[in-house]
């Protein structure tokens, strides 16, 4: 019988392909992960990973084992999530997470509004860092999470779009791009882009780290980051750039970082999300409160709050263009860089 740590260590390492990040996710030491994987390999009788000083790769046997084990592990996790959700629903308590300052404003305002719809329901609001946010949602630490789109994971439900903001490129203040009035996607070939820990092609935040420009030019890798403050520090130190929303100019202004708007990229939209196994009237009601909160914070362009959450579907083409702003200043558009979205949902 495989031990739980062996299972989690193997599947997490198969995803991260890095012993340090695997240890951090499981809250154990790197040595413990190495020992656990070696013990599992001894039990099976063959290596599951190829290890060198620079890279970790699954062997063919390891790849097969990962495909065999992951569906069962995810089914077990889903069962635990359902049990946790059942207990929380009984007690009428919600734990709401958010990523980023603008989402945090909406989350706290929604927490104030929600008891009007659900008297007696307690709402706790917590900040989630980008590298851990979805993991906390899936682990049951959060009931709902306010985060940026697109989000295509089939185990998640995406609620109505709350906010829309121009997409910008955050660069070191002394980089030549910082002197431009706008950037295009082709400019991404001129500076390394920071990498978000755990992000893979097709996963959440993959749109913030394309590998090539629309014209086919390669985009260099910058350092890996786990928090947004870490990203700002690295950008300010001249080690790379990051695709961000215009809220950065309002909430995270720094003298060593300049944000330049894109001329050819869609806006960044924000919405609540939760597990399909926890798709309850309580959470859908909170999503409506979140819409009302976004409307009260950014009334320009907002409408009624009657849109219900729908299961996530493959991303479509987003429309809209960044506002014409310069440097790190706000866009020259009525209402500032953030706008609450109407009840019509995503563009």
Plain-language structure description:
The chain is an alpha+beta fold and 347 residues long. It contains nine helices and 15 strands. The strands form four sheets. Strands 3, 4, 5, 6, 7, 13, 14 and 15 form an eight-stranded mixed beta sheet that branches. A three-stranded antiparallel beta sheet has the order 11-8-12. Strand 1 and strand 2 form a beta hairpin. Helix 1 crosses helix 3. The longest helix has 31 residues, at 60-90. The relative contact order is 0.15. Residues 301-336 and 343-347 have low confidence and may be disordered.
List the helices and strands and how they pair.
Elements: H1 4-16, H2 19-26, H3 30-44, E1 49-51, E2 56-58, H4 60-90, E3 93-98, H5 101-113, E4 122-127, H6 133-138, E5 144-148, E6 156-158, E7 163-165, E8 167-172, E9 193-196, E10 221-225, H7 228-236, E11 242-245, H8 248-251, E12 257-261, E13 268-275, H9 281-297, E14 310-311, E15 339-340
Parallel strand pairs: 3-4, 3-5, 9-10
Antiparallel strand pairs: 1-2, 5-13, 6-13, 6-14, 7-13, 7-15, 8-11, 8-12
Helix pairs in contact: 1-2, 1-3, 1-4, 2-3, 5-9
Task: Give me the strand/helix succession.
Answer: HHHEEHEHEHEEEEEEHEHEEHEE
N-to-C span: 49 Å
> What's the rounded overall pLDDT mean?
84
Radius of gyration: 21 Å
Roughly what fraction of the amino acids lie in strands? Answer: 15-25%
Number of strands: 15
Q: Number of helical segments?
A: 9
Determine the fraction of residues in helical runs and give it as a percent range: 25-40%
Basic shape: flat
Strand-pairing-aware structural class: alpha+beta
């Amino acid at each position: 019988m495989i031990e739980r740590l062996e299972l989690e260590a193997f599947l997490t390492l198969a995803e991260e392909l890095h012993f340090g990040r695997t240890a951090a996710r499981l809250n154990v030491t790197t040595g413990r992960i190495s020992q656990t994987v070696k013990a599992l390999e001894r039990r099976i009788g063959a290596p599951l990973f190829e290890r060198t000083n620079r890279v970790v790769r699954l062997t063919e046997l390891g790849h097969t084992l990962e495909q065999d084990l992951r569906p069962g592990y995810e089914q077990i996790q889903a069962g635990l999530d359902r049990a946790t959700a059942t207990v929380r629903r009984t007690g009428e308590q919600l734990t709401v997470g958010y990523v980023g300052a603008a989402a945090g404003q909406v989350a706290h305002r929604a927490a104030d509004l929600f008891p009007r719809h659900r008297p007696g329901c307690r709402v706790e609001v917590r900040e989630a860092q980008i590298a851990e946010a979805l993991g906390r949602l899936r682990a049951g630490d959060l009931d709902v999470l306010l985060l940026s789109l697109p989000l295509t994971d089939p185990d998640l439900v995406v609620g109505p779009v709350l906010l829309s903001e121009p997409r910008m490129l955050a660069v070191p203040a002394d980089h030549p791009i910082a002197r431009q009035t706008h950037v295009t996607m082709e400019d991404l070939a001129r500076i390394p882009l920071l990498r978000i820990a755990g992000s893979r092609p097709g996963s959440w935040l993959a749109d913030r780290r394309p590998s090539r420009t629309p014209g086919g030019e390669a985009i260099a890798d910058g350092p890996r980051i786990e928090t947004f403050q870490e990203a700002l520090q690295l950008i300010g130190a001249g080690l790379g750039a990051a695709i961000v929303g215009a809220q950065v100019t309002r909430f995270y202004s720094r003298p060593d970082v300049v944000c330049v708007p894109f001329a050819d990229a869609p806006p960044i939209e924000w919405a609540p999300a939760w597990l399909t196994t926890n798709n309850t009237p309580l959470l859908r009601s909170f999503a409506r409160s979140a819409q009302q909160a976004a409307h009260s914070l950014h009334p320009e362009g907002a409408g009624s709050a009657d849109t219900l959450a729908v299961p996530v579907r493959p991303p479509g083409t987003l429309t809209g263009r960044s506002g014409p702003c310069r440097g790190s200043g706000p866009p020259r558009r009525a209402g500032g860089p953030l706008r609450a979205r109407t009840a019509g949902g995503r563009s």
